[in-house]
Here is the input.
Amino acid sequence: MLEIRMRVGPKGQVVIPKILRDAFKIGPGTEVTFSVEAERIVMRATRTDTADVFERIAKSGRTIRRFPPHTAYERELRRRRA
Here is the structure.
């Protein structure tokens, strides 16, 4: 288990060590989530990948309108020919 000590600054901020930022792909603007688990503060990088977006949509209960895959392509061809 990797353990790195950091000091809390006067504004209550802690710098995430570069080795961890690189390993978890945390960059400027990355959203992180803090939680408390058995007297520990746990920080997790919030997932924003395609699978996460799909999961949120699927759980929302919204239906996805289906259409033949070539419809938009054929419509665009007709528009260009006009």
Summary: Residues 50-60 form the longest helix (11 residues). The beta strands are 32-37, 40-45.
